Every structure is written in structure tokens, then in C-alpha cells.
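queue> holo job accepted (zinc ion)
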Amino acid sequence: MPEAPQEPHEEEIEEPQLDPELEMRRAAALSLVRRFGDPILKSRATEVDRFDDGLRAQVARMAGLMADALGVGLAAPQVGLAQRLLVYRVGPEAPVIALVNPQVEWTSSERETMEEGCLSIPTVHVDVERPVHVRVRARDEIGEGRLVEASGLEARVIQHELDHLDGVLILDRTSRDQRKEAVRAMREAERAQEAA
Ligand code: ZN
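queue> job finished
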């Protein structure tokens, strides 16, 4: 977290000195995550209708990728699957939670702006304003109903991942100036990579 270590960043948690093995694992995981510009990130995902072993394998795969990428959340479209499925884990000791077909039931009028990053938009961090509290109804990976009442970081992660299911990215939720600056920085990084 280069800019402000005291602030929890969305999805992406960067550690300044990562051991080489972790770094390799992280790079391998990130290479499987769809990047900004991929059309699947702009599309609306469809409802999951089968709660079978395939779904549970997908949840396990996403949880593994999220852990290796040092992320706190991952949505199915980010791994190329246009389904309404997300996983998140707000702390290293917290359990991984899978939300299938999540629906926002209520959000607080109290809102808060914080900096967010996204595994699909590496190196970019922008300010995003979101409700502080949220109540979401979903199913888990075996099809049981799940009601999540979340606040703070957990609420933010859930809303960030839910956005992915609707083809919405943090760049769509930030100010025009920050969006322009982020796109400029990404182009510059691409050019630097091409030149290298
Ligand atoms: Zn994201």
C-alpha cells in the first residue's frame, strides 16, 4: 500500500517486501485475472442456477487465486466467468465468504470516500464513495440462503465485487479527473512495458 498504509485498499493489498516465492505466486495469480479493457469486465453477469460440484470447484479456485494475489475480494467475471458469484475475505484470519446471486437489500444513507484498487486495474488507486453499511441477500456455494450485514471494509469489498457483476469498475465510480489521470498512467505504464 504505497500511498497510505493506514488505509485499507480494496481488493489489492500490496506488501512492500514480499518474499520471492510469494511474489512469484502473486504474479502467476494476477496473470489469470482479466485486465481493464477485457469486454467481460464491462458486461452484466448472469444468475447462477446450478449449485453443483462445478460451482464449488469454481469457488475454491477463486479463493485460491484471491489468496495468492493477496486480494481481499474477487468476482467471477475477473477470472473470465460471466456468473453472479464473488468471494471475499477481509482479513488473513477471516473465513473466505462466497456470495452467489447476491442482491443488495439495503444501503445506508451514510457514505464514505476511500481509496480503492482493483486486481483488474493494477497500480491504479482512485477515490470511491460508497455507503458505509449494506445488507445483502445471497446464496452460498451449496445453495443455502445467506444474509450479510456488513460495515466499513467488508461493506466496501462486497459493493466493489457486486459492481463487477454489473460490469461496473472503480473508474466508473470516481471523479472525472481521477479517471483521466488513471487512464493516462495506465497508458504510460503500457508504453514503458512495450519499450522494455
Ligand atoms: Zn475489482
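queue> Residues 18-195 form a domain with the Peptide Deformylase fold (CATH 3.90.45.10).
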